[in-house]
């Protein structure tokens, strides 16, 4: 009897340990949702090389420089390191199916045409399939031409997120977003902070959504936030979830 009890006891410990690993392991999470989990802010070639074989996609920040006709990979107000999109994408492994989420920081009517032509030129010279690229901007009306050219597009809704607005601001912003979507017959993605998840679910049920996690996710209530994480990833409306990747390379 005592021996059976010991075997049962250790069996339960093993089961509990396995359950804990499955629930909290990022490795298991990535294996389970490998298409959905992308890496946030991969703004250097060094970090790109580190993650490109481990994930389905990366997000990076770009600023179009009219004077140089180049995309500078940079997250303002960080200083530029003169890394251009041409060189960045050239460092990707040949025949890679890696996807790219381009957070376009300064898409404007004045640079839309040149920026689109430059992006087309880069993709053509590197034989990069345009469907592998998501162009994101808060200037939704200017995204249309990128969509026509074969790129995925995403409407960046609000910073730091709709959840942060007071009641009047929220209603005004929501009205404006819905008006933009309707007037443009917009068919692309919507992107925002993960804390806007329920807002997007309620107000935009027909649109696929892209979300990102920011610090201090998981710090206050690790179990509760882990439940939330699985809920986001299991939702078919959520196409991509950006997560931070622990690296020795400094984020820019």
3D architecture notes:
The protein is of the alpha/beta class and 252 residues long. It is 40% helix and 19% strand. It contains nine helices and nine strands. The protein has a nine-stranded mixed β-sheet with strand order 1-9-8-7-6-5-4-2-3. Strand 4 (99-104), helix 5 and strand 5 form a beta-alpha-beta unit. The radius of gyration is 21 Å and the shape is globular. The chain starts with a helix and ends in a 9-residue tail after the last strand. The model has no long low-confidence stretch (mean pLDDT 90).
Keyword list:
alpha/beta, nine-stranded mixed β-sheet, 9 helices
Would you tell me the structural class of the helices and strands? alpha/beta
Mean pLDDT: 90
List low-pLDDT spans: none
**What is the helix tally?**
9
Beta fraction of the residues?
15-25%
Overall 3D geometry?
globular
Distance between the termini: 61 Å
Radius of gyration: 21 Å
Strand order of the largest sheet: 1-9-8-7-6-5-4-2-3
- What is the H/E order? HHEHEEHEHEHEHEHEHE
Helix content: 25-40%
Topology:
Layout: H1 2-24, H2 26-32, E1 37-39, H3 45-51, E2 57-65, E3 70-73, H4 85-90, E4 99-104, H5 112-125, E5 133-137, H6 144-148, E6 152-156, H7 167-184, E7 189-193, H8 197-203, E8 209-212, H9 222-234, E9 238-243
Parallel strand pairs: 1-9, 2-4, 4-5, 5-6, 6-7, 7-8, 8-9
Antiparallel strand pairs: 2-3
